[in-house]
Amino acid sequence: MARQIIQRLATVGLWVAVLAATAMAQGVGGRGGPGGPAGGPMLLMRQDVQQELTMTQAQIQAVRELLPPPGRGGDRGGPPPGGDRGGDRGGPPPGGGHDGPPAGGDNHRQHIEQQLRQILNQTQFTRYQQLALQFDGPKALGRPDVQQRLEVTDAQKNQMRPALEAHKQAMQALRDRQLTPDERDQAIREIDNRLNQAMMGILTNAQKQEWQRILGARFQFQRQGPPPR
To answer: Is residue 75 a contact partner of residue 37, using CB atoms and an 8 Å limit?
Structure first.
């Protein structure tokens, strides 16, 4: 019993770290505005993603049990950035976007995803990874695992850093503006499009093709309220 409690606490700690890393990267409230859900594994609590992956109730419950309790690490529900991650955020935006994870973020993500592999089947897990990249958009090109898959060179990484930093600052500035959901969607699209243009100007044609391949089929993220708890 004590061992189970320790394992549960360790999992909660990892989730808090994942969510904290995402909040630092995306600004308070993440891309969903104040209290909105983070990307990555938290996408599996979205009803539209659950339907896309044809997740069973047993799988949904198993994923929910990996999450921190309500009030720990942020709200599990709420609409994504402005609602639907900027309208076109349903699939590869022109070329593919949100700030790269801070140090340690990838390690926590990998640990959680190892557990998700035990819950989802291979087809579901592959599609989940595609949706996570689509949700992040061109910002995901700053992730070490994505850069490795695309064989991004050190010179290219150096070129990407200013664009990623500019994107991060623009998103942080956006959180302080009083905007309607539609206005916020439009602002996010413009910020992401600028980053996308910069990134596509750095990647080779072969890298662009691989980026489109790992994004998978376009998915339209829907506006939605918080899932049942």
So the answer is: yes
Instruction: Fill in the DSSP letter of residue 102.
Output: P
Please report the sign of the dihedral spanned by the C-alpha atoms of residue 77, residue 218, residue 56, residue 5: negative
Please name which of 92, 36, 79, 43 lies closest in space to residue 63, comparing C-alpha atoms.
Answer: 43
Residue 65 burial (C-beta neighbours within 10 Å; 0-12, 13-18, 19+): exposed
97-109, pLDDT tens digit by residue?
A: 333 333 345 667 7
Q: How far apart are CA 94 and CA 75, in angstroms?
A: 30
Q: How far apart are CA 81 and CA 57, in angstroms?
A: 26
Q: How far is residue 121 CA from its own chain's centroid?
A: 20
Residues 96, 196 contacting (CB under 8 angstroms): yes
pTM here is 0.68
* Integer Cα distance of 95 and 76 in angstroms: 29
Task: Supply φ then ψ for residue 214, to 5 degrees.
Answer: -75, -15
Phi and psi (nearest 5°) for 156? -65, -40
138-178 pLDDT, tens digit each: 999 999 999 999 999 999 999 999 999 999 999 999 988 99
What are the structure tokens assigned to 194, written together? 């600028």
Q: CA distances (Å), 173 to each of 16, 28, 166, 170, 178, in order? A: 24, 11, 11, 5, 11
